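Reopening this one. Same input as before:
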Amino acid sequence: MTMTSDPAGLYARLGVDPSAPAAAIHAAYRRKARVLHPDVPGTGNADAFVSVKEAYDVLSDAVERAAYDRSAHLAAAPRPAGPPPTEPLRAEPMTAEEMTDESMIAWPLFSNLPIALWISVGGLFCLAAAMVVFEFSRPAPQEVVSDVRPFAPTVPSVVVAPASVPTAGVATHYVLPGRGDAILWRRDAAHDTYLPAGRIADFTPVQALGLEGTNGLVEIRLADGGSGFVDAARLAPGDRVAAHRAYCAYNSGAPPFNGEVLSRHGDGSAQLSIGNRGGEPAVVKLRDASGRAVASVFVDAGGTTVVRNLPGGVYRPEFAVGELWSRACDSFAVGMRAQRFGGYASVSGLSPLIIPPDLSVAPPPVDIPDQAFEQD
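Same output, byte for byte:
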């Protein structure tokens, strides 16, 4: 990583490369936040946390990150070299013999100037004097404020529909978060302009059809069979799964602490010891016979915890590992893998619950879809 590709050191603060995807930006911030947050005993550092947070605020916003990357590109661009300096002309001093009357050039006298030249000079002087008098007699001009803005399609004074506009087809992109929902534009061929037709919420998956000329708009397919246009800067490539993961990462919330009970249904006197011997953080869920998650617990990589006050009964555990736990989606936003144990057991029969389990556990855990694990 060079200084020109990271002029303010924002990528270096998070420990990622300038080409890192958005998911890696979020994951790097969460890893550092779990260590540097002032509330973390031993490793908490308020100044370091603020520095990391400042970098994350810029790099997690697609618009601000693009502006930062452009500034890095401009800083790295070579500047045109100016013309080489020239040596001043030097003349050898004249000798006494060379300075004869014939070699000396006499300056002309004012009396020798032509009459026509004198008339021209006088006319110019009179014109200049008249212009000075005219300028001083004019009223002071009003200050003009220049309003220079980047190109945008012409927006007439109409109210944009507040509801999101549904899209159809196989998703190829999704809407990036910005300052408000993305505007959907309709082409008005009769007036050669674009009219606002609605709004599209952040992380909505869309099917892109192609770029529209030089306007920076992308045509997308709509549910009614028609099409509309969205600012290309608000779109990122990815299918519906990628859109969902991006939403989860963006709305992940504060990172959990080891042993935090993320959700609970019911109370009792039972307790369960859980150990995570894996290299990634994990979330363990205890599901009863109805499929409801009675408790959901976060366990750091290599961490242990004890969950108390659980209701009695039999449960089948599930666990998921990954990075960047999202409170909004109840799942990991990066690199998630979920598994379910093969049978039910009482709380006392499950304790201690070690994940990932030994190969000797029968029946062995099986992989389950992320959506199945997310259900509470």
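So the earlier flakiness isn't reproducible anymore. For the record, Residues 84-92, 98-107, 140-163 have pLDDT under 50 and may be disordered.
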